[in-house]
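Chapter summary example.
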Amino acid sequence: MREIKFRAQRIDGERNWVYGFYYEEYEQPNDICYTQGYIVDKEGDIWQVDPKTVGRYIGLEDKNGKGIYEGDIARMIAEVFVDEEIGWKNFEYIGRIRIWASRGVVMRVYSQNGEKLWHSHYVYKDVRGYRSEVIGNIHENPELLEGK
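The structure predicted for these 148 residues follows.
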């Protein structure tokens, strides 16, 4: 069974990442509705976080043992059988980790203009030929996806 936890950036000026249980509160002062997000960490401390940075843990670690969260940017090496003459060949992909309710966890790789989907790789643990490594996330390192 997959562990349910989240991460998000604090909004207290530190912008540090906190990990734990995520919840939201809705407020409506002066007829304007807005959401405040919070994470309760394993020590029981409550941190106000930026809801735009919330990412759910996907239940897998990368090749270095680092937990993978939705919104991470990963590099994956896929060993693919091309044909009898060429044999097996390594391909490198860099993409954003996403969770799709109907399809599970995928790494999506976009074209240079960021619109057309090139590949949608399912992220597996210990499957021959797939090795992934978290190299950043969309909130701190969006430039990693530029030109990919």
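To summarize the output: The radius of gyration is 18 Å.
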